[in-house]
## 1
Amino acid sequence: MKVEEIKRPAYIVLISVHGLVRGHDLELGRDADTGGQVKYVIELARALGEHSDVERVTLLTRRVVDSLVSPDYAEAEECLSAKASIVRIECGEAKYLRKEMLWDSLENFADNAYSYLKTQGRAPDIIHGHYADAGYVGARLSHRLGIPLVFTGHSLGRNKRNQLLASGVKRTDIEATYNITRRIQAEETTLAVAQRIITSTQQEIEFQYGLYDFYQPSLMRVIPPGTDLVSFYPPRVNESASFISEELKRFLKKPKKPMILAIARPDPKKNFVSLIEAYGESAELKEAANLVLVAGNRDDIREMEEVSKATMNDLLIAIDRYDLYGKVAFPKHHKPGDVPTLLRLATASRGVFVNPALTEPFGLTLIEAAASGLPVVATEDGGPSDIIGNCQNGFLINPLDTKLMAETLLNTLSNTKQWKRFSKNGVENVSRHYSWQSHVEQYLNVIRPLIEMQEPIERMVPERRPRFFRDRALFTSLDLNLIGDPQSLSQLLDVVKSNHKQVIFGIATGRRLGNALSALRQHQILVPDVLITGQGTEIHYATGLTKDAAWHRHINHLWNAEAVRDVLHEVHGLTLQPNSEQSDFQISYFVDSSVVSVQEVQQLLQRRELAVNVINSFGQFLDILPVRASKGLALRWCAEQLDFPLQNTLVAGVSGADADMLIGNTLGTVVDSRHRNELTSLAGSENVFFSNATYAAGIIEAMTYYGVPLMKERCNETPPSVH
C-alpha cells in the first residue's frame, strides 16, 4: 500500500501514560501495567520515526521518581532514534503507581503535557492516545489545541468487566480493584471525540467497541501491529545451553519433552489457573509434554502488588493440588531477550504456545510464536481469531472449557503432519500480514486525511496593558462563593484591588452575561479582568467586556443543539429553564434527581452519539454544553490568551460545574467543604484544598494555605508551603 503524499512531514504525538516505559531492556511482565502495550508504543514510535513522511515522533509517558524502580524512568527525555523520543511528564505523586491509582492526576498530566507541547515550535499534527487514561488526556489536549485525536484502546473496560463477571469475580471486587466505572466513562468520553479509532482486529470492533454507546464503526480502522522479525525467527542453532533453558531444567524431570509454553503477567484474566487445571486433569497431556509458565518477574511473592500476589498464590496452589512438581516450570526471572529464545526452544521441542486468557485484545505473543515457527492454541475472545485466521497456524478455544483446552493441546502436539503445516504457515504468514513496515504504511494512510482537514485555532488578540506584568491569577465562581457574606467579600475585594497590577482577577459562573452583571452590581463586585459565563460557553475580557468570538468558533466543534433538545424533550424529571437562561451553546434544565439521574441523561445522549458535556450543579441544575466547553477548558483558554501560568492560578469553586477548574495544575479550592457533596470526589486530587470557612472567607483561607503572594499585605500568619 503506497502512502499518498503528505504536504509536510508529520509531527505525531503518542501518549501512553501508565507502566514503566523506556527504550531498552523493557521490563515486560514486571506487573500488570508493563506489558504488550508498552512494547507496542515503543516499537510504533521507532517504526514511524524511520519513515520519510514523518518529521518526528514524541511518546509522552509518566515520569516516575522512585527508588524501587530504575532511575531511567525519572529521565525527562530519552532518544529512541534520530526522529523519535520519549518525553516523561510529571503526573501527580512521583512514585510508581498502578494505573488504577492515576485517575485523579490525569488533569495534571494533561496540563503539563500541554505546557511541553507549547514549547516545541509547532503544534503536533496528530495526538494518538493509548488505553483509557491516555485517551482521556488526549481528549483534553485535543480540545485545547484543536488537533485531531486518534485512539487505541488496547483493552476495554466493558469487555473486561463482562469477562471477570463470567469467571466468578464479584462486581464489587471488580470496582474496588480496577476502578472500572471511571475507566469506562473515560473510554466513552474519548470515543465521543476521537476522529479515528485504530484497532488490531475486526473482532475488536464488533464485539468490544460494539458494547459502547459511542460505537461508530465508520471511524474505526483495522491495522494489525507489526512484530520484530529480526528477533523472532525459527530455530537455527541448538540453544539448549542458554541461560533460560538452564533455568527451566531446574524444574523439569524430563526437560527434553515437548513444551506447552504460556507467557503472560500474573493477572486473573490471563487465566493461568484454568490452564494448570486442564493440564493437571489430563493424564495423556501430562505424559506428552511439560508445562512452562512464564508469569512475569518476581523476587518475593509476598512483596508483589495484591492482584499479582493473589494470582501467583492461586497458581502455586493449583500446581500443588495436582502434584505437578517436575512437570511444570515457573521461573522467577527472565529478560526480554529470553522470550525469543523460549519460543525457539518450544519450537525445537515440537511444542505449542498457548494463550488461555479470558479475553485478549490482540495477542502480540501469538505473532511472535508464529514468527518462531511455533503452533498456537488461543482464546477465542479477541484478537487471536484474526491472527489464527491470517496465519493458519493453530486453534481457537473457549478459555473456560478446561476439558476442551486439554484435548486441543493434545491434538496439536500429537498430529505431526499438522504440526509441521502450522509451523510453516506461521512463519510465512507473519511476514505477509504483520510487519512494521506494512503497519506504518497503513497508519499514515489513516491519519493523512485528518492532517489535511485540520484547521489551526484562531485566537483573538485581547487588549493588553504593557506596563503591567501579571503572572498570577485568581478565578472564582459566583454563587455561594463570592456572594453570601458581605464582610469577607469586602475584605477579598480590597486584596484584589490592591494587587491588580500583579494579579488577573476572573469570575466563572453558570449565569448568562446580563444576569451575571446584575449580580455583580447588586453586590458591588468590581467587573473582573475575565468574565466566563454560561458554564464556560462565553468569555469576555476587560476593558469593555470584549467577547472572545474565537472561543465561540472553537467550541462549535461537534455541537448539535437541536439534536440534544430533541433527545431530552420528553425525559421525565427534566424541565427547561426560562429562555433567559438558554443560549446557542448552553441548554439548561431543572433536574429532579428523584426521577432521573445525571448518569441516565448522560448515557441517553451517548447512545445517540452526541458528544457533549453534561454539567450538574447545586443538585438541581443541569446544563448541556459542547464537548469543548466547560469552566475548566475556558479557564485554560484564557491562560493561553493572557499568558498566565496555571500553577500560579488560585481557583475557588463550590459545585460540580467547577470541578474541572479545580484539578490539574491550578491551585484548587473547594469552598465550605462540609456542604459540597458534588466535589467530594476531588479529595484525592493533587492541589485541591477543602476550606472550612464559607463564601469569600474560604477563598482567603485558601490564599493562606497555599501561601499565595498576593496575601502578603493582608495575612498576618506565616503561610505554609504549597501542597
## 2
Amino acid sequence: MDHRAAAGNRNFSAAPSSERLGVFVDGPNLYAATRALGFDIDYQKLIDFFRVQGRLVRIFYYTAVLGEAEYSALRPLVDWLDYNGYTVVTKPAKEYFDESGRRRIKNSMQVELAIDMLAMAGRLDHAILLSGDGDFRALVEAVQRRGVRVTVISTYRPGPGFIADELRRQADLYLELVDLAPVIRQRPGPREETMPAVAAGSCS
C-alpha cells in the first residue's frame, strides 16, 4: 500500500464535486490533536469546508462524557452542532482503576463510529475520518472493500501518538491537520456568536 502512503497531502479539493461524502469526527482525538498544535476548530468553517468538497450526505461528531457537570460544560458545543448540520453521538464515559490504583477514564467511541460508517458505506463514495486512532485501520479496510474511498485527517507534527502509522498507510488519502488549519481554525479574539464558547474535547 505504498501508493497510499505516497498520497501524502494531495490537494483535497481535487476530489470530484459530485462525490457523496460522509464525515466522521472522533471528538476527543481531534481535540487532543488540535490542542497539541495550538489551535481550536471553528466548526462552522469545518462543515463549510466539506460542503464544497462534494455532496455532503452526513457529518457525525462523536464524544463521551463523564458526568452531569462535564456534560453541562459540553452542552453548548453539543447543542450548537445539533442545530447546525452535525449528527452528534454521545455516551457516558466509564471510570475505572488500573492495577496501580490510578483512576482512568475510558471515553472511546470506536464502536459507535464503526457501526455508523459501515451502515453509511452503501450511500457514500468517500468517507472522511478525523482521527489518528490506529484501532480504526480494520474499519477503513472494511469500508474500502465496499468500494468507498477513505481519507484520514490527523497530525504527526507534535510527535508520535496522534496518527498511527498503520492507519495512515491504510487510508487512500492522508491529510495533515496543520495544512487545513488556515481554513478551519478559530481566529484570535472574541468568538463569533454562532460558535460555542467551550472546548470541543472537554471530555478528554
## 3
Amino acid sequence: MNHFNLGPLHFQASTSVLVLIVFVLILTTCLGVIAIQRSARRKQTSALEVTRLFCVTYLCAMLLGPEWRTTIHSDLKPEIAILWDDSLSMTTEDAIRPENIAGNESILTRSALVQRILDTEFWKTFEKQDRNRVTKSSFGTPPPPENTNERIIAGTDINSALSRILETERNLRATIFIGDGDWNTGKTPIASAQEFALKKIPIYTLATGSKQYLEDLELESVNAPAYGIVDENVQIPFTIKSTLPRDVRTQVRVRSESGKERTKSITIRANSTHYDSILWKISEVGAATLTISIPVANGELLEDNNARDFVMNGKPESIRALVIETLPRWEYRFIRNALSRDPGVSVDCLLLHPSLGKGDGPDYIQEFPEKREDLQKYDVVFLGDVGIGENQLSLEQANLIAGLVKNQASGVVFIPGPQGNQFTLKESQLADLMPVQLDETQKQGLSESLETPMRLTPEGEKSLLTMLGDDESQNEAIWRGLPGFYWQAPVMKAKAGSTVLAVNDSRRNEAGRLPILVTSRAGSGKVLYMAIDSAWRWRRGVEDLYHYRFWGQVARWMSYQRNMAAGERVRLFYSPERPKPGDFVSLTANAFDKSGAPLQDESLKVTLKAPDGTLSQIELNKEETAWGSYSGKFRIIQPGEWGVRALASDDPTASIEAKIIAQSDPIEKTGQPARFEVLEEMSKITRGRLVTAASLEELVQEIDALPEPQPLITSVKIWAHWLSPTILVILLSIFWVGRKLNGTF
C-alpha cells in the first residue's frame, strides 16, 4: 500500500490502483483533445472537456481514500496513571511480602501489600526532571459495615475503572494496575484493555495475592423452604465447600433464637463440594430466624463464612384430600384411616364399587365434584384402581382432575390395582401426568410368590417424602426393615424428567430396576405414582407409625406450593422460594369469585413493596384456561423482605399478602484465589507486562524507558463525507448542462 501526503491531505492506494488511475486520466485527456480538434465550436468544447477531465480527476481522487488529518500536540506532560483495587477481596490474607518491601510480616493481606508498595513511592522516579505527571487513584472501596444491603451488592468493576482512566486522563504514557484481578460486576476488563491497545497505551499489572485457595471450609448456600407445617419436619439442604487438603469429620448445627438446636455428623472430603441436608421440626406458628453453622476446623484460615442465618415461617396445616377408589381393598382402607385420623387433613372419599354402588358413611361423598369451584378446594387427589368407564370416572371428570393439578398446583397420587383400570386413563389428559410407562401386555400387574423388598434410590434417601425416621441414618435402617410386597403394577420404566425414589430390589429389565415410587411435576402441580398396593403391611410390629407418617407426608408434600399464600378468594405461589438479587421471581395465582368459581374476566394486580419501602405494581397475565389462573414475574433488585399483595378486585376478601425473603451472598468474597490470568491477559493485549511486588524495580525501569506518547491525530475521511457525493453530482450536472448547450447529445 502506497501512502503520500499533500499537507494535511493523506492518500493511500495500491500500485495497481495508481496505474489504473494514471491510465484513465491519460485516456480521458487524449479523448478530450480529439473531441476538441473535431469540434466546430472549439472554445465551448474545450470548456466542456476540461469539465469532464475535472470530474474524472475528482472521482479518481476519491478512489485514493483521501483523509484530512490534524495533529494535536498535547500541552500536558506525559502521564503515568497508578490504579489499585480497594475492594473486599483485597482483605484476603494470602499475600507474600517480598524482601524489597519493608515490614516484619511474611504473610499479609492483599490491601496491606498494596499499601506497602505505595509507601515506597516508587513513582518518584517517573517525576524526576519534571518529565512525567503521576496520578494515583483507587476503586471498589466497599460501603461501611452498617450499610448492609449496599455492602452485599458491592462488587469489583475493573472495566469501568480502566475506562474512567481513558475518559478523564490525557496524554497517557502508561497505566499501572495493582490488584488481584478478581472482577465480578460489569463487563470483562479485556474490553477496556482493547481500548488501551488501540491508543497504544500499555497496562502494567502488579499482581497481589495467591493463585491457590486458602485452606477453608465455607458454608456456601442454604436452600431452606419458605415455610413448614408446625410439628412437622422440614428438610434444609445446604452446600459446604472445602479447600482443605484432608478429609474433615464435623457437625452441622441448626439453632433457633430460643436455643433449640439439632445436629448432624458429616464427613467432608478434601478439596470438594459437599451437598447434604438436615431435618428441622417447626415448633410454632410465625417467622423464626434460624442459624446453620459448622465449627472452625483445624488449619482453617477464614472463620467468618462458617455460619448462615435464614428465616422460615411456621404455618398451621389445613389440607383437603379427595380419595377415589372402586374396590375397598386393604390399601384403600388404611389410606382412608390414615388421612381421616390426621388432624391436619380433611378427607373426602368417593367409593365407586362396581356392584354395590357408592360408599356411604363418615367422610364419604356420593358424587364426583362436577363444578370447578367444588373440585378446586382439594389440595391432593388419590386415584386408586380407577379408570374411565361405567360406574367409574367420565372423560370430563378425568380431565378436570388433570386441569386441577396443572393449573391450581394440586397434587395427584396414582395407586393402581390388579384390575388394571388405570390403563383406560390413556384416553384422558391424566395419561400425560403419569410419570411412568406401563406394560400393555400385563394389565393385571406382576405377582410375586415371595415377599419382595424395595430399595431407596440416592434421590429417595434424600427426599423428605420417604423420611420415616428422625434422621437419615435412622431412616435407612427403617426402610431396610419394612415388610415387602407381593404385587406390583406393570411399570416398564420412568418417563424422562421424573424422579425415581424407590425401586424393586429383585426385578429388573433392560431399562434397569423396576420403579416403585416415582414423582414428577405437571404444570404447577405435583404427581406421585406408587406401583404397589401393600404399604399397609408396613404396620407390622409398629402399628400405624410408619404407614401414617408416610401418607401424611405425601399429603403435605403435594400441597406445599399450593398453600404458600392462600386467602379466601386468591391463592398465590412463587418460585424460587429464596431468590437472590438479580433473580426473576415467577408468580402464579388462582382467583375466585364470591361463589368460589374461578375468575374469568377480571384482572389480577400485584403490589410489590421492596425492602427500602419502594412500591411498584405489576399485572399478572390471564392464562388461557377456565381455572382462574394468572402468571407473571418480577425481578429482585434488593436483598431483604419483599411484600407481595395480590388483589383481584376492590373487595378486600379478594386479596392475599405474602412475604418473600431475598437473601443474598455478598458479591465480593474473601478467600478466593487471585486471578492472575485476567491480569496477564490485560497486559498482553496492551503490550504491557505482568509482574509481582518482587519485580517492582524492574517495572519502574521499564516504564521509565518508554517513549513519550505520540501526538493525537484526528482524521476526517473525505471520501465518506456527505459533501463528496454532493460535489460530484454538481460537477456532473454542470457537464450535462454544458453538453446540452453545446448541442452534444
## 4
Amino acid sequence: MSGRAQSFGTAAAADGRLARRTVEAPWLPAGSDAEVWVGDIDSLPEPSIIVRLLLTRRSGPGPTRFFCVPGAKGLDLPTRFLYRDTERPDPSRGVARLVTAVLGPGAVTTHCVGYVRNVVPVPDADYPHPTPWAHVPVVVVDGAPEPAVDGEWVDLESARDQLSTRHWWPIVEHHLGAAGQPAERL
C-alpha cells in the first residue's frame, strides 16, 4: 500500500474532495449522513470497516472496464469486511488480504482513490460501527493484474443502470473520468 495508514480527520479533505453527501441517509441512524470523497488519497482512512478493490483494464479503443464479482445484491466490487480487532486498526492488512484473495499471492502496489464515510453523531442500538466516522475506502491496484476469482468486466455506460446506486459508484466514475478512462495521477 502506498502511504501509511493514519487518521483521516482533516487529512482526507486535503487529499480528496467531497463528491456527494446524502443527508439523513436512510440506512444509517437518524441524524446521520453519508459522504463520498474522491481523489488520489495518500493513506487509508481510519477507522475503516470495509475495503473495496477496483481493478481496471483497457484493451483497444473502447472504454476502460472494471472488475465486479457476484454478490448478494448482484455485481459488486471485490469487498472485504474488516475484522474489528486486527484489521480495523490497520486497514492496510485488510487490503492486503483482499488483494491476495482476488489476485492470488504476489506483490502489487495499491492506492486509495476515494472512500465512503458514514457520519454518525449519535449511534442507535443497531449501528455496530465506530462513531462519529466509519470509512469504506476503494483502492486501485496499479498495473493490470488478472483476477483469480470469477467475475465480470464492465464499463461505466453498460453498468450504469445496474450499479449507479452503489455507494462506491461516484468513486469509480470519478476515477475512470467522464470518458471512461482512468484519471491521470499527478
